[in-house]
Amino acid sequence: MSGIVLSASVRQNLLSLQSTADLLSVTQNRLATGNKVNSALDNPTNFFTAQGLTNRASDINNLLDSIGNGVQVLQAANTGITSLQKLVDTAKSIANQALQATSGYSSKSKLTTASLGATATADNLLGTGADTPATAGTVTAGTFAAVDVSGAGSAATAATAVTGSGFSAVDVSSGSVAFTLSVDGTSQAITIDAAAVTAYNTAQSASLVNSALSAQDVADIINYQFDNTGTVTPVSVVGGELQIDSGTTGATSNITITGYTDSANGGAVGLANANNSGSAAVAADSLAFSVTVDGTAHNITLSDAVVSAYNTANSTSLDSSALSAADVAALINDQVGSAVTTVSSGGALVFTSGTTGSTSSIATSAVTAAGSATNTTGIAVASNTGADLIPGSLLSGQTLDIASTAGGTAVSLTFGTGTGQISTLDQLNTALAVNNITASLSTDGKLTFTTTNDYASSTLGAFTGTATGATGAFGVVAVAGPVADANAQNTRANLISQYNQVIDQIKTTAQDASFNGVNLLNGDQLKLVFNETGKSTLTIQGVTFDPAGLGLATLTKGTDFLDNAGTNKVLGSLNDASSALRSQASSFGSNLSIVQIRQDFNKNLINVLQTGSSNLTLADTNEEAANSQALATRQSIAVSALALANQSQQSVLQLLR
After folding, report:
1. Are 246 and 186 in contact (CB under 8 A)?
2. Within this chain, do residues 496 and 561 fall inside the same structural domain, yes or no?
3. Residue 329 lies in a domain
4. What single-letter DSSP state applies at residue 515?
5. Quick one: which of 283, 286, 278 has its CA closest to 256?
6. Which of 207, 239, 378, 505 is 20 to 30 A (C-alpha) from 192?
């Protein structure tokens, strides 16, 4: 073969034919696979880019199932809410039937008063008639005569001291001085002689000389003999003379010396028999008593000193020796601090409280006289209490307190025509409304209080106040409880059974509103992932929409649906539940819209990614078919050219032979 030699034209034709065959092979491969890039060798950039786009599209496509599952979970929850709303509406219908049903009580709790009188009307509950005013406590004293309290009195005096005279040194070496000394009733025999001096010296460790006793020596011996304890020492030396003092004052103060004898050898003691007494104190003239006004006692004193102080303070000139009734009234008022005392037309003292009514009181005590004063004021033990206003109307001025009824606000009322007081039936009902009570007036003047229709099952609160009781306009009152209507109660009991069945269905419906194990009405949580990286997510927190979660409870026969108030309370709970369902439906609807938007977005994104990948790798079949036809033609021409070249070369060889 190595000996074969190709001409240049043949070689050129062969190379061209080979190139055409290669191109035709590539074109046929593209037509067979539909891709212009089948491997990284064809186009690395397009191949790997397309592969990345395809992979991402595949990852996102894998998420579509979970997103679709989430859509179904939300739709299941929405379906559940729709059913729950219908059940709540059914429960409302049952409750409204209870509102429209016959009252469960043949009569409501009530209280009927005594008649307020023939003149009491709805426009004037007070009736007509004049009031008897309240009075004050008043005491009038007896006959008054001028009062004399001018005596100033005197202080107690002591017994006059006994003082000796002519004392000179006493010699009792022989002889003696003896007497009996009595001081304030205590008597003691006194003997001053040689034996007494010796006894004193021994007892007192002294060294008196019996032949020359000084005044102090004699005083010491007398004091020792009178009270050897030294507690009482009545004798002292004043100006060189012996002096005896009692040390006390008053009528019991006394100094007595009796049986005085003096046989001393020399000198003189200077004492003698004596009897001196003090005087008792003389009290100043005064009158004392008390005035009690509305329970507060005031102590009153009439004396010269009090009159003098009053004159000084008030620039007056009252005469304490001849006080008139007006003078005494002024002195009493000054000490009480208010004008409680006046003088009657007959000249007697009159004591009056400054207040009126049953709490107004006045009292005077007995008068205590001192000194030479005598009670000529006419004041004695006496007391008096005022009287309350007696209204011309039975009800005017009386009060009424009603305790809370059916959870209402307790009321405190006063009947009358003053500001804030009650005088008409309309005013009374307006005041009672906050306590769930209404009142009516019968033709015979009796008020009847009852609970309002909405609270037919409740009992009126306690009635107190001055309007009640034996002395009140209402008389002795008693609250009667409500009386149940058996037939009406049975009807309401049947409605309760129907209601409870609906509540049970709410519970089971909420439990059944699940999809693929997720129940957004039973507190479950739904988490959705929207992209291949897991960074784009949506977490939907479920709610608990069983009866408890909706604030609904089963009802009890004999307790619920008893009256409109209880029924309205149930309706309020149902309305709240309905609002909660609507709000949550809106929330779930918003979440469903978001999920569906993301679902559509992911589908469109997958299409974009797949289209982008295809654009990088897919071949244009029309173009490739045209190329294939052109290359086939080219190949045919090349074969013909090669044949001609080879034929030409054979002809030359024939000529050379």
Report:
1. no
2. yes
3. yes
4. B
5. 278
6. 239
Angle at Cα 431 formed by Cα 427 and Cα 435, nearest 5°? 150
Q: How far apart are CA 549 and CA 555, in angstroms?
A: 16
**Cβ 520 vs Cβ 595: under 8 Å:** no
Task: State both tokens at 240.
Answer: 């060189």
Q: Which of 159, 157, 215, 214 is nearest to 182 (CA)?
A: 159
Report the SS3 class of residue 454: helix
Vertex 426, ends 423 and 427: CA angle to 5°? 50
- Residues 519/509, Cβ–Cβ less than 8 Å: no
Buried b (16+ CB within 10 A) or exposed e, 347-361: ebbbbbbeebbeebb
Which stretch of 5-19, 196-210, 499-513, 597-611 has the lowest confidence by average pLDDT?
5-19
Phi, psi for 23 (deg, rounded to 5): -65, -40
**pTM summary value:** 0.43
- pLDDT at position 657: 45
> DSSP letter string over 146-207?
-B------B---PPPPEE--S-EEEE-SSS-EEEEEEETTEEEEEEESHHHHHHHHHHHT--
CB neighbours of residue 491 within 10 Å: 17
How buried is residue 213: exposed, middle or buried, by Cβ count under 10 Å (0-12/13-18/19+)? buried
In the block, residue with structure tokens 């977005």: 601
DSSP string covering 318-350: --TTSB-HHHHHHHHHHHHTS--EEE-TTS-EE
State the Cα torsion 106-109-110-111 to the nearest 10°.
Answer: 140
Mapping DSSP onto H, E and C, the string for 205-246 reads CCCCCCCCECHHHHHHHHHHHHCCCCCCCCEEEECCEEEECC
d(CA 26, CA 22): 6
**Is residue 228 included in any domain, yes or no?**
yes
What are the residues whose beta carbons fall under 8 Å from the beta carbon of 231, sequence distance 6 or more?
Answer: none
Q: How do residues 405-433 score in pLDDT, each as one tens digit?
A: 988 999 999 998 889 999 899 999 999 99
Q: Please enumerate in sequence order all residues whose Cβ is within 8 A of that of 637, keeping only pairs 6 or more positions apart, or say none.
A: none
Q: For the chain, what is the domain count?
A: 4
Q: Coil, strand, or helix at residue 654?
A: helix
Residue 247 φ/ψ region, left for φ over 0, alpha for ψ in the -120 to 50 degree band, beta for the rest: left
Domain that holds residue 345: 138-151+283-385
Is the CB of residue 403 less than 8 Å from the CB of residue 321?
A: no
Spatial separation of the C-alpha atoms in residues 344 and 365, rounded to whole Å: 20
161-173 tens-digit pLDDT: 788 888 898 999 8
> How far apart (Å, rounded) are the C-alpha atoms in residues 340 and 352?
5
Q: Which of 561, 589, 606 is the last residue of a domain?
A: 606
Q: Is residue 340 part of a domain?
A: yes
Residues 273, 179 share a domain = yes
Q: Is residue 156 part of a domain?
A: no
Structure tokens given for 16: 């061209």
SS3 category, 525: strand
Name the residue with tokens 């007036």: 441
Query: 473 with 395: CB under 8 angstroms?
Result: yes
Q: What is the pLDDT of residues 571-587, one digit of tens each?
A: 889 899 889 889 888 88
The CB-side HSE value for 278 (13 A sphere, CA atoms) comes to 24
CB contact at 8 A, 592 and 74: yes
Alpha-carbon distance of 192 to 372, in angstroms, equals 49
Phi, psi for residue 410 in degrees, rounded to 5: -60, 145
